[in-house]
Design goal:
Helix content of chain A: under 10%
Strand content of chain A: over 45%
Structural class of chain B: mainly beta
Oligomer: heterodimer
Number of strands of chain A: 11
Radius of gyration of chain A: 13 Å
Shape of chain B: globular
Strand content of chain B: 35-45%
Number of strands of chain B: 9
Distance between the termini of chain A: 37 Å
Structural class of chain A: mainly beta
Mean pLDDT of chain A: 93
Distance between the termini of chain B: 38 Å
Largest sheet of chain A: 7 strands, mixed
Helix content of chain B: under 10%
Low-confidence stretches of chain B: none
Low-confidence stretches of chain A: none
Number of helices of chain B: 0
Largest sheet of chain B: 5 strands, mixed
Strand order of the largest sheet of chain B: 1-9-8-3-4
Largest interface: A-B, 25 and 26 residues
Chain lengths: ~120, ~110
């Protein structure tokens, strides 16, 4: 069964550094998402992306964050200048053409980002 | 966004059925009821969804109250692998794209 893959599984970075989290969504999916989960807390929506542009973003997704689909397969989340509070699990998700409400989201197993 | 209410936790015995309740009294007519689960150290995983009628798939069944203000996820024979956090989510749509908003979910423990 096709799956969403995320790399790396664990990223350690120093405060103020830029990080890029990478995701390969399922190949025929058109809608892409990033979520994050701070340890012990809820899974939080960050951003959705469709047709090469952001569809919706949350308050968390400020100017330090950006997303890109640089080619036909990868979907990246960049954090320009990491802060300690950015430490979390970051989940990428994708869904097929989502005109209907029924398309489930397929999540990857996440990248654990640790900012020191 | 319409909210859901779930108990914090539930315990079950292996190979017995499990009924996970969810209240959503402010649900609107076009909100779909989705269930996801999150196994330890993994990303959320889709389980099932429905609108009005009860639904069955290979993972679970979803029983939806006639007034749609509550629903129950049914695992017919719990296994140890079913120990996870289960999220009941109302899928709110904004145009053609719709996000999922996760709550705290219910933590299911399965005893051998």
């Amino acid at each position: 069964e096709p799956e969403v893959t995320q790399t790396p599984s664990h990223q350690v970075t120093q405060m103020g550094q830029e990080v890029i989290l990478r995701c390969v969504p399922i190949s025929n999916h058109l809608y892409f998402y990033w979520y994050r989960q701070i340890l012990g807390q809820k899974v939080e929506f960050l951003v959705s992306f469709y047709n090469n542009e952001i569809s919706e973003k949350s308050e968390i997704f400020d100017d330090q964050f950006s997303v890109e689909r640089p080619d036909g397969s990868n979907f990246t989340l960049k954090i320009r200048s990491t802060k300690l509070e950015d430490s979390a699990m970051y989940f990428c998700a994708s869904s097929p053409q989502g005109i209907s409400y029924n398309s489930p989201l397929h999540f990857g197993n996440g990248t654990r980002l640790t900012v020191t | 966004d319409a909210k859901t209410t779930q108990p914090n936790s539930m315990e079950s015995n292996e190979e017995e059925p499990v009924h996970l309740p969810c209240n959503h009294s402010t649900i609107s007519g076009t909100d779909y009821i989705h269930w996801y689960r999150q196994l330890p150290s993994q990303g959320p995983e889709y389980v099932i969804h429905g609108l009005t009628s009860n639904v069955n798939n290979r993972m679970a069944s979803l029983a939806i109250a006639e007034d749609r203000k509550s629903s129950t996820l049914i695992l017919h024979r719990a296994t140890l692998r079913d120990a996870a956090v289960y999220y009941c989510i109302l899928r709110v749509t904004t145009g053609a794209n719709s996000k999922l908003t996760f709550g705290k979910g219910i933590t299911l423990s399965v005893r051998p």
